[in-house]
Here is the input.
Amino acid sequence: GNSVTQMEGPVTLSEEAFLTINCTYTATGYPSLFWYVQYPGEGLQLLLKATKADDKGSNKGFEATYRKETTSFHLEKGSVQVSDSAVYFCALIQPGYSTLTFGKGTMLLVSP
Amino acid sequence: NAGVTQTPKFQVLKTGQSMTLQCAQDMNHEYMSWYRQDPGMGLRLIHYSVGAGITDQGEVPNGYNVSRSTTEDFPLRLLSAAPSQTSVYFCASRDRVDSPLHFGNGTRLTVT
Here is the structure.
């Protein structure tokens, strides 16, 4: 079956540091890949997505590139802010399927 | 535009009690789903629906019932609450298969 593996957190960074959160997946075919973000006390919201190999999704300074050869979709940001503190979820959906498969989430804590 | 609305925000139940978690969306989305979020477990799919009158089980359906009589509403019923059902519950909807999920703000349920 499909699965998504994320690095365990929490990831603790100082403001303006570089961020990488690793995500790898197992799926047949060519899934669409997503990063969702959950701020404290809220539901998840879409951060970015990519639907085919070598696509780069980007939003709010975050980027992730769909790497078919390494089955990865790592999230990066060049300079994090305190307001980026949240839980980040990697997810995929397989063509022909209705449901998303989520990773377990990675908490990011950014200190001033 | 309200999006996905969940009620109540908080609920405490005693073991064996029943209740219904409400979810409504005003975006005319065909797909709706229920997840539970537990520490270290990420998001797990309980039930989902691809349209009015159609429901299906997700990863962890035991102890929960759903129905979808209208496009807008997708209630989740706990017939006999158990402490293992203590969790945060999220409802989510989307338009097309590759569209992002829209999440509600969650219901925090405690079963004593």
Observations:
- Residues 18 and 78 of chain A are 5 Å apart (CA to CA).
- Chain A touches chain B at residues 32, 34, 36, 41-46, 49, 51, 89, 93, 95, 97-100, 102-105 (CB under 8 Å).
